[in-house]
Design goal:
Layout: E1 7-8, E2 11-12, E3 17-19, H1 28-38, E4 50-52, H2 58-63, H3 66-72, E5 81-85, H4 90-102, E6 107-112, H5 117-120, H6 132-148, E7 151-152, H7 153-160, E8 164-165, E9 171-172, E10 176-181, H8 186-190, H9 196-205, E11 210-214, H10 228-238, E12 244-247, H11 253-263, E13 267-270, H12 272-276, H13 280-290, H14 299-316, H15 319-334, E14 339-340, E15 346-347, H16 350-358, H17 362-373, H18 382-388
Parallel strand pairs: 3-4, 3-13, 4-5, 5-6, 6-10, 10-11, 11-12, 12-13
Antiparallel strand pairs: 1-2, 2-8, 7-9, 14-15
Helix pairs in contact: 1-14, 4-6, 9-10, 11-13, 14-15, 14-17, 15-16
Bound molecules: flavin mononucleotide (FMN).
């Protein structure tokens, strides 16, 4: 078996699996759900090793805007947690990193992969892949700042959660990771000119403790196949100096194992796969450690998880937020609620999704979920489900 917990600087995670940042999706409530599924007894009690906030604006954090503070919200159960910053100004990024340390981060991450215009037009996200000296300057300045605000041993104990802190000294800084794509242009990648191997090496040289590589170019956005060979090239280039975390299109536990086997990466980050299958970390770690994937959760367990997620969103934010989220998130949960009829045809859950979308309150959502568990709100073909996703 290939199971090896991932080590990032002074922290040994409980597994080699990480929850990706997904702007608008991976809030504190969802991270809590993922962590709870990870501890589920059908697995080996371990699943996600590290979960990350969605991308955070350092200016927003420093100004204390409500949106940024909501996005950065964490608590003692939500550990270890990565806080991801985006931007292009080394000084502001450094101050943002200090803010993250002061507000509970176990790891700080820099976004070097976001393809969205709003971010790249300000030279952040994957635009940094076109200006490697700026990317490295930001990382260097952030590492310097992190070294100025080390945490005490007691504080490390609070922030490690189910991971281990391996340093014996009294104070140690929060480590920095970076998340990137293969490079900006697809033709560069195809011509063997991807910058990610070189960039990863330079980042390791300035003190970055690990890099995540989404195996697509910026131009590919989210289309086309993930290029495992591109991730493998980064692994080869850093040559063990720091761990590489592979990312992209892991939907089943077997995909995680395949990614590790075919790239040599030391960790796997899962994003969209976790939106439909928040127990995927439990399954992927169990598969790696025992060779067996746990049985799929029952319909009732999945519905209970939806209810719990809704309740947590109300608790951590408010009813309005919870309703906005659950209406769009039901589509993702629904992917694992489809069943087969006696003739082997897929029975969809389009009526359930519609009922949740039209619900006016968490109470009404819960009533619809009751109806579903009693056998109602089913129907619609697989194709109709996918088109609506
Ligand atoms: C809607 C959406 C929002 C995303 N937001 C972020 C983000 O805030 N930070 C980041 O580094 N990546 C972000 N990503 C990229 C994911 O972290 C991940 O790299 C990508 O989805 C590929 O992995 P997956 O196939 O497991 O989802 C986002 C992706 C999507 C689809």
């Amino acid at each position: 078996m290939i199971a090896r917990p991932l080590q990032l600087g002074p922290i040994r995670l409980a597994s080699n699996l990480l929850l990706a940042p997904i702007a608008g999706y991976c809030d504190l409530a969802f991270r809590t759900i993922v962590r709870e599924w990870s501890a589920h007894p059908a697995g080996v009690g371990i699943g996600v090793g590290l979960a990350c906030t969605d991308l955070l604006s350092p200016q927003g954090l420093l100004r204390g805007t409500a949106t940024s503070l909501d996005l950065a919200a964490t608590n003692d159960f939500d550990k270890p947690v990565g806080m991801q910053l985006y931007g292009s100004d080394p000084e502001i990024m450094a101050q943002g990193a200090r803010w993250a340390v002061e507000h509970g981060a176990t790891i700080v991450d820099i976004n070097m992969g976001c393809p969205v215009d709003k971010v790249t037009k300000k030279d952040g996200g994957s635009k940094l892949l076109t200006d490697l000296s700026r990317a490295v300057a930001i990382a260097k300045r952030v590492v310097e700042e992190l070294e100025k605000c080390p945490l005490s041993r007691e504080e490390w104990m609070r922030r490690t959660g189910n991971s281990e802190f391996l340093v014996s000294g009294t104070h140690c800084p929060v480590p920095l990771t970076c998340k990137m794509r293969l490079c900006w242009s697809t033709s560069d990648y195809e011509g063997g000119l991807a910058c990610s191997p070189h960039l990863a090496k330079m980042l390791a040289d300035v003190g970055v403790v690990g890099v995540t590589v989404h195996g697509r170019t910026t131009e590919m956005k989210f289309s086309g196949e993930v290029q495992l060979a591109g991730i493998a090239r980064v692994v080869e280039a850093v040559n063990g100096a720091i761990p590489v975390i592979g990312n992209g299109d892991v939907r089943e536990p077997e995909d995680a194992v395949r990614m590790i086997h075919s790239t040599g990466c030391q960790g796997v980050m899962i994003g969209r796969g976790a939106l439909s299958t928040p127990w995927i970390f439990r399954d992927a770690w169990a598969l790696q450690t025992t060779g067996v994937t746990p049985a799929k959760p029952s319909e009732r367990e999945i519905i209970d998880s939806v209810r719990r997620y809704l309740a947590l969103m109300v608790e951590y934010r408010d009813e309005h937020y919870a309703m906005v989220q659950i209406r769009r998130r039901m589509t993702w949960f629904a992917k694992r609620l489809m069943t087969l009829d006696e003739r082997g045809r897929i029975v969809g859950v389009k009526p359930l999704k519609e009922a949740v979308r039209n619900s006016k309150s968490p109470l009404e959502v819960n009533r619809q979920l009751d109806t579903f568990l009693a056998g109602g709100l089913r129907g619609g073909s697989y194709e109709t489900e996918e088109a609506g996703a």
